[in-house]
Amino acid sequence: MHRWLLILSLLSLPVAADEASRLQQAAFAPQLQHQQTVLLRKNQSLLRYLWVDVYAAAFYSEAQVSPQRALREQRDRHLELYYFREISRDDVIKAAWVTLERQHSPQVLEPLRGELDRLHASFNDIRPGDRYGLDYSQATGLRLLRNGEVIFHSGDARLAQLYFGIWLAPEGLSDELRDALLAER
């Protein structure tokens, strides 16, 4: 029994080391200046799909605000994704809609369809090394950034909650990623 535990723990080491090197490659800042507030990196993790590293993700919120509280209370927050793979714009939009439709009824999505379509229209094909940020502030609303440049803005707090939910709400893209990003540390 102990031998199997040892073998299993040894097999998991390369994965952990690989994740650490991928997170180092993503080089998420320990803190971000966000409007007049400093946001701290609370957690970071890696999304793997079928043993392929797709992107690293980091979640930021105010110093005294947990990730769950930042979401629940619509506090200032930032989600950053650093991509390791090419992904077509159409595939990103399709994955977003599949997730949103799994999470929400048509009655919830329909009033936001115009803003969602406008947000999706700002997407480009993703290349390795691209960095996307989803940013929310009560003062300025939702912003989508690509490689540091704002490519979309909306003042609709409902849209912000919905779109952050793709990664951070139940039935999102990855339960494992969500749990890692929202963990209390």
UniProtKB/TrEMBL annotation:
The protein's name in its UniProt record: Chalcone isomerase domain-containing protein
Keywords: Signal
Signal peptide interval: 1-17
Domain called Chalcone isomerase: residue spans: 23-182
Species of provenance: Pseudomonas fluvialis
